[in-house]
Amino acid sequence: MALQVTITNAGRAEIIAAENTGTNKVTIVAVAFGTARYTPTKGQTALQAEVKRVSSIAGQAVADDTLHVVALDESTDTYNVGEFGLITDKGTLLAVYSHLPPEGWIIQKAPASTLLLATDIILESLGTAAIQFGDVAFINPPATTSVAGVVMLEDSLTSSSRTKALTALQGKRLFDAIGNDITFSQTVSKALAGKQPLDATLTALGALNVLADKLIYATGADSFNITDFTAFARLLLAATDGAAARQVLGAAPINNAALTGTPTVPTAPLAVSNQQAANTEFVMRAISAVIDSSPESLNTLRELAKALGDDPNFATTMLNALAQKLGLAGGTMTGNIDSRANSIIRALNASGAVVGHLYNDGTSFGLLDKLGQWALRISNEGYIDFTGELRGDGGGLSNVPMSGIPGLIAALAGKLALSGGSMTGAIESVSNLVIGINGRGWVYHDGNGFGMVNDQGNWAVQVLRNGGGVVIGGVLHGNGAGLTGIPLAGVSGLLSALETKANKATTLAGYGITDDLQWRTEPLTGKFTVECLDITQSGQESGILVRTKIPIDSTVMPHLTIKGCINGYTSPFEMHLSWYFYEGAFYLPSVFISGFYSPLGGGGVRVFLSHENGLVNIRLDFGGITYIPRLAITAYKSAGYGGNYAWYTGWGHVPWSRETAIGGEVLASSHTVLSTANTGAVFKNFVLAGGSARGMRTVLDLEAPGTLIETFSRTPPPGTLKANGAAVWRAGYPDLDAAIYVGDALNATAAWGYRCTDPGNPTGTRSPSGVYLVLPDARGEFRRGYDDGANRDSGREWASWQDQSIQGHTHSGFTSTAFLQSGAGGIGGPAAQGLTNATGAASVVGTSGVTRPRNINPLVCIRY
Question: Potential cystine with 52: which of 33, 37, 178, 589 (Cβ 3.0-4.6 Å)?
């Protein structure tokens, strides 16, 4: 933004002197910052309240009368800028800029921030040719057609600006609007080349005012007129095809015409034999010709009757005879088919090839295959022969080679008797249950493992897939023959036996039991520790939905520990989930949280439980958007409780957003554990506070955002702002905005805690969507507690200011003479003697425009 700075008289003189000599230029070497806010004058030689002078500056002329200046301060200093000036190498205040307090600060410098002031300065009635800057080159001037620099983006296709650049989005919209055609101008030119040029004919047609039901007709060269459509013409034009048009015209259809009246056609010669229409005259001539030749024709008819057996009902006779025959398409026969030939019926496929025969050879009857070999033969002696294999439909013997009854016996010999026996092959089962053992247990597989299940349906011995090892449920008992005769009383007996061995290892790693092997062997002791899931979710998330393998109907649950960083790399935390014994997954667990990240009650981490496909889901709600959450979930199973360790592998997770509702989920109860993790770096403030109660309150974070704090320092304590009614940027103080914003309903009337769009005019720019938040102004004010239903200050709106008032009351007075003296008009003024003090009263020691008690005036700040 270009600023209209004030060129001082001393600065103007130095510039004019440099322009006159033409050799020496005015060099700007520093920018001075001050805290005063006022209207500058040309007679100034220094800032009114200079606090900082910065020599890291850069600049250049971007127009004949405009300088672009950039000042940089990377120090840890803290100050507010209400005025600034340009200092030359001769120490001259060349130019100064400031504005009044209602406009706010020009810029504010915090300890951990870098001040970067970039502005365009217009030199009133002076040129820039005689002004130069030092060698620092980090300037970003505004871009022009001749100067490379910063340019503002324009997000509109209707702007007429010549200094703004089009955004990529609007460029894409423009590209879409021209059909994604990079040769749009050429395409348009080619399209226009194929159009009718504007000439006298088009001009004449364009001049016509054509309304509905009008017809344009030519009256001459390039001359046209309009006439009305008749009803008949409108109906004819509305016809959609020839048939409809003929109907409008009243014409008969070409096909199957139904003519009325006495239509006539030309008479064709008798020799004509085609599709020409024959009229009555042609028919009469043809009949006469037949009659003329009748004797010969009658002889021919006699011969035909004799050929038909003189049967006057010849057609009926033939139909009755044909009805007794079997059609080629098939049908039903009531008698037998007798054949003396060997082949009775041949079966053909769709292409006509033979696929088999119904056959007899004089001694046998049956079916032949396509090669002419017997497939099924029934002999005259009453036996049946099969060639090949007899295949059943699933309800009988399948694939059993049949050689008469001996073949059946041989087939049965290959089957295992129900009473038991020896098998030389394997039993394969596609179902989970392989063998049931008289209700005492099962040989079983579930796709992940194979082994034995006890009568309760729990794994006794499970062999895991892919070399996963063997899992034994319960206690392993020996028979005295294991490990050189040492009886095994579970793993405890094994460990006792190992204690008697020389050179024994002292750790599980000494026996080769490490990492994955360790957690797979620990179930032998009835307990284990398993890392269920390791999560690093990139990006910004509101929470994580963890899909476990724990059945929803499990009666016992493990202890889960979740550790990690909820927000980036600076918010470590630890969470413990513990369930009540034997109450199952949805007897809600207790959640213990410790960590720097805000715990429950402050928008922090919460735990929800739900279930999906019969398995437990755990949702971690972070309480807000977090960046790159990293978590590791570990299950701790105590002896005999917590289910099968296989439940704690193969977990998955997906990010969760606040817009996604999960039906039926429940919230777990939570407790926050106080530790150094959730007090964090604030212990530093406690040390700096000398171990005082104030420091301890800071450590415990008892002063929530919106808390008023009094200090006898003129500088607000860390984490606070002066409660001076200023409008601050909401995005910079989100917790404070959430704590004290009065709400949309009170935004138009509240004295503080409302939002506005202009910090220089907060009252006049109130808006619930404003980006600024107005702080309470506690300067010179007494505080009165919010009534909150007590009816001591009823009817008063929240966040309101109240003027002073004095309650109605009476006083007693004593005098030695008259209290009032008489005057000319009756009652006069006070008696000259005055009043005598009553007990407990005091003489007036001072008067003022307000009523007040004795007081002190600390600086009132607000915690953000």
Answer: 33
